[in-house]
Write a structure and sequence with these properties.
By secondary structure, the protein is an alpha/beta fold. The protein contains 14 helices and 18 strands. The strands form 4 sheets. A 7-stranded mixed sheet has the order 10-11-12-9-13-14-15, sandwiched between helices. The protein has a 6-stranded mixed sheet with strand order 2-3-1-6-7-8, sandwiched between helices. The relative contact order is 0.08. About 10% of the residues have low confidence. The structure holds guanosine-5'-diphosphate (GDP).
């Protein structure tokens, strides 16, 4: 979990801020063993993150250098921290502060300057002076009076959002893309036939790894240099016994496959269409932020009728609006027809799931969309989206700061979800939007 370090010379209000952030969230105080008395880690719940915040109380300036004894521990926090909050006092800047600033400069790309004790208008004007340290725009707060805490939290959220995007970008480059597929659907829809066909594509890579504690066997194949794993092929490939149809839809089994998958292939017998069970499973898939590709199998058995796919897809979207973004691909697992198209669709979906949008681009778009359509007015006045940022991939997740959260029109969220899908490149994956209130 992300680590936030709070630093500052004595008396700038570190503990007051600390207590306000942590206590407000009713976090459990948990002095971690092995950490000196001066540095205490706490859990700080800042939705959607659970953070560790540490008061590196150990910094002291002796003359014009840092006290060697406490330095080491605190320095290790600075190095490990995902974000450093440097606290200063608006009423008083000392030489000690300036030593700190110079000391922290190497970490300036992960540092937010927080100016405390801004209790009134007059003091607010003093905050501008702190721009001159070249550590970015200072965040003005009063820890004692609880002013500006929301702004501080937002700044932290924004910083972490950006940092997380960067991190996953690096991770992706390293792990050069993998894909975990779950095949779900009613018995006899052709799951084993498809699994065998996919695995058969590249026999040399087939690897049946017997699960140790789980009753799961995974099989792999490769596609466009991407390592693809089909989860739970044991459950799919074994010979069926009488009565096993019921067992297949064993909720636990399906859920654990969904849990582990990037993309779920929902196998549908084209002659039968979607069932109630499919609908239930699908809502679980979407709840978990996984992507779905609907596979209409046994296409070879259907008489070709013009526009049939369009008709079927319209019907599915009408009956299962929650699936409106899921691609629908007709195949014949038996003849292999359409399987290439299925793979390229899955590949595109996988790409979208890990795609990131720059915060500035997203906010330009939010502004543009807001010019076309504003949220409906509520009983207590206007609703407004102030700005937003993408806070996650796999699943794709955006955080929007709004003026009021309670009663925020769901219709507007749907509008934005559709816009994000269409204009920012997420047409076929779930997009989750969280709201956070900024007063
Ligand atoms: P599972 O229960 O979902 O794993 O389904 P199976 O893969 O065992 O397939 C059930 C039956 O449907 C088998 O007899 C398959 O040969 C048949 N089948 C699977 N895919 C196709 C297909 O694309 N076309 C046709 N005509 N039959 C298929």
């Amino acid at each position: 979990r992300p680590l936030i370090a709070v630093v500052g010379r004595p008396n700038v209000g570190k503990s007051t801020l600390f207590n306000r952030l942590v206590r407000k969230r009713r976090a459990i105080t948990d002095p971690t063993p092995g950490v000196t008395r001066d540095s205490i880690e706490h859990e700080w719940i800042l939705d959607p993150y659970a953070l560790t915040i540490v008061d590196t109380g150990g910094f002291k300036v002796e003359g014009d250098s840092l006290d060697e004894q406490v330095k080491e521990k605190s320095v290790s926090y600075l190095k490990r921290a995902d974000l450093i909050l440097l606290l200063m006092d608006v009423t008083d800047v000392t030489g000690e502060d300036e030593t700190f600033i110079e000391y922290l400069r190497p970490y300036s790309d992960k540092l937010l300057l927080v100016v405390n004790k801004v209790d009134n208008r007059e003091r607010e004007n003093g905050v501008w002076n702190y721009l001159s340290y070249g550590l970015g725009e200072p965040i003005a707060i009063s820890a004692a009076h609880g002013l500006g805490i929301d702004l501080l939290e937002e700044a932290v959220l924004r910083f972490l959002g950006e940092a997380q995007l960067l991190k996953s970008r690096e991770a992706e480059a390293e792990d050069s893309f993998s894909l975990r597929l779950a095949l779900l659907g009613k018995p006899n829809t052709g799951k084993s036939t498809l699994a065998n066909r996919l695995i058969g594509r590249d026999v040399s890579i087939v690897s049946d790894l017997p699960g140790t504690t789980r009753d799961v066997v995974e099989s792999s194949f490769s596609y466009r240099g991407m390592n693809c794993t089909i989860l739970d092929t044991a459950g799919i490939r074994r010979k069926k016994k009488v009565g096993e149809n019921i067992e297949y839809y064993s909720v636990n089994r399906a859920l654990s496959a969904i849990e582990e998958a990037h993309v779920v292939l929902l196998m549908i017998d084209a002659q039968e269409g979607l069932s109630e069970q499919d609908k239930k499973i699908t809502s679980q898939i979407i709840k978990r932020g996984r992507s779905v590709v609907m596979v209409l199998n046994k296409w070879d058995l259907l008489q070709e009728v013009p526009n049939m796919i369009q008709a079927i897809s319209d019907r599915v979207r009408f009956l299962f609006p929650v699936l409106s973004f899921a691609p629908l691909v007709p195949i014949s697992a038996k003849t292999g027809e359409g399987v290439d198209k299925l793979l390229s669709t899955v590949y595109a979906v996988r790409k979208q799931m890990s795609k990131r949008v720059d915060t500035s681009r997203f906010n330009d778009k939010l502004k543009e969309w807001g010019e076309h359509y504003q949220p409906a007015r509520g009983k207590r006045g206007h609703f407004k989206v102030l700005y937003g940022t993408q806070v996650g991939v796999e699943p794709v997740r955006f955080l929007l700061f709004v003026n009021r959260k309670k009663g925020f029109p769901p219709g507007y969220i749907s509008y934005l979800t559709n816009k994000i899908r269409k204009e920012l490149g997420f047409p076929s994956v779930p997009v989750i939007i969280d709201l956070k209130e900024r007063r």
